[in-house]
């Protein structure tokens, strides 16, 4: 089949989230012999199958119009969200048009709301209200684009049941859900020498990720484990002065190891050198970091938001806690650190990860493609 993925960003120009999912799917389709191409943003030209227009996701919608003729060359256009709505509209209007599949990774309305400043334990977290209002308006616009894109689509899929229900309401219970998957592990990464720590955080910084709560989580853990340490992978503390100040105020600067930003294929050794992964986010579709941790045999303590409850089995491979309760998160982390049977949780985590592979994900999407193409 001829498949064109339309996604607002793509590695290596931007790493993470939707772009990595599209990259894994693209690689799998090519390996199976399908004619797979990608329409995205950026400047890298190393892969002739990836067409880049515009410089950023913000300009993707209009810049995608420059390649409107591509719509005639494919059996299926697989759009990840609706940023390229003008391109999808032209594809829909063509006489012998390709079929359109739209995959929703998050509910943009909830995503925007998660950036709202909050007060936790008497302390305000987040930026100014003006910045949040701007982000909320932007997210509502994206949600509108998503809604129109779904109305143009022949089929819509979601990456978690939670996302489907958030977007569609009650109808989401019957929607098609195709969970994201992980590619095969990089075996050479197992040989990396990494100093063990108790707590691990992997991700970007900011109000949605609730990274400013990490000092409180570490404080709660250290009530039971005085030598507990935290490793941060994904950003530099120098770029987060407020968080760095809170860690210094708590006397934790020497108890926190910050590795900086890195690609997902380099993170495996850090999962293997930790006792528990902490995910304090205010909103997620279905965090890839949870799957990555599980594959390394690492239990997870996460906030009960988005699709986390669809992969975390309470007390089996991890724990779920209420949003903005760092003390509860710290207590659950401390339980895992202290529990001699936490190895059993790690084994359960690995078994869970076995069901979230790119091979399974690819088979599910190809099935949907084949259901769409005979309609032509």
Could you explain how this protein is built, in words?
With 376 residues, the chain is α/β, with parallel strands linked by helices. It folds into 2 domains: 2-181 and 357-375, Glycogen Phosphorylase B (Rossmann fold, 3-Layer(aba) Sandwich); 187-353, Glycogen Phosphorylase B (Rossmann fold, 3-Layer(aba) Sandwich), CATH 3.40.50. It has helices at 17-31, 60-63, 85-93, 108-113, 129-152, 161-168, 214-222, 241-249, 268-272, 288-295, 326-338, 342-353, 358-372; strands at residues 2-6, 35-40, 50-52, 76-80, 99-104, 118-120, 123-125, 155-158, 176-177, 199-202, 230-233, 256-260, 276-279, 300-303, 318-321. Strands 3-2-1-4-5-8-9 form a 7-stranded parallel β-sheet, with helices on both faces. Strand 13 (276-279), helix 10 (288-295) and strand 14 (300-303) form a beta-alpha-beta unit. Helix 1 (17-31) crosses helix 13.
Number of strand elements: 15
The level 1 CATH classification of the largest domain is: Alpha Beta
The CATH topology of the largest domain turns out to be Rossmann fold
What's the number of domains?
2
The end-to-end span amounts to: 13 Å
Strand order of the largest sheet: 3-2-1-4-5-8-9
CATH H level of the largest domain: which superfamily? Answer: Glycogen Phosphorylase B
């Amino acid at each position: 089949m001829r498949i064109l993925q339309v996604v607002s960003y793509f590695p290596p120009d931007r790493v993470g989230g939707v772009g990595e999912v599209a990259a894994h799917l693209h690689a799998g389709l090519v390996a199976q012999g399908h004619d797979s191409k990608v329409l995205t943003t950026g400047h890298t030209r190393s892969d002739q199958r990836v067409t880049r227009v515009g410089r950023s996701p913000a300009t993707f919608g209009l810049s995608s119009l420059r390649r409107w003729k591509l719509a005639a060359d494919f059996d299926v256009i697989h759009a990840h969200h609706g940023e390229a709505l003008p391109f999808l509209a032209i594809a829909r209007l063509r006489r012998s048009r390709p079929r359109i599949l739209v995959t929703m990774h998050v509910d943009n309305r909830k995503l925007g709301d998660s950036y709202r400043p909050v007060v936790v334990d008497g302390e305000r977290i987040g930026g100014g209200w003006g910045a949040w209002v701007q982000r909320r308006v932007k997210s509502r616009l994206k949600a509108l684009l998503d809604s129109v894109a779904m109305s143009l689509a022949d089929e819509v899929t979601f990456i978690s049941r939670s996302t489907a229900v958030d977007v569609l309401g009650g109808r989401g219970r019957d929607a098609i859900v195709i969970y994201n998957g992980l590619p095969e592990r990089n075996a050479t990464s197992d040989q990396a020498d990494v100093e063990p720590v108790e707590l691990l955080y992997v991700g970007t910084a900011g109000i949605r990720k609730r990274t400013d709560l990490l000092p409180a989580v570490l404080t709660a853990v250290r009530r039971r484990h005085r030598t507990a340490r935290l490793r941060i992978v994904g950003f530099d503390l120098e770029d987060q002065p407020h968080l760095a100040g809170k860690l210094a105020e708590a006397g934790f600067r020497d108890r926190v190891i910050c590795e900086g930003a890195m690609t997902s294929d380099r993170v495996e050794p850090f999962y293997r050198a930790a006792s528990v992964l902490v995910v304090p986010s205010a909103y997620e579709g279905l965090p890839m970091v949870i799957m990555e941790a599980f594959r390394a045999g690492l239990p997870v303590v996460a906030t009960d938001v988005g699709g986390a409850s669809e992969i975390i089995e309470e007390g089996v491979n991890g724990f779920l806690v209420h949003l903005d309760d760092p003390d509860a998160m710290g207590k659950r982390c401390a339980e895992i650190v202290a529990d001699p049977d936490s190895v059993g949780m790690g084994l359960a985590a690995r078994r869970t990860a076995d069901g979230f592979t790119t091979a399974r994900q690819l088979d599910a999407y190809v099935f949907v493609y084949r259901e769409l193409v005979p309609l032509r």
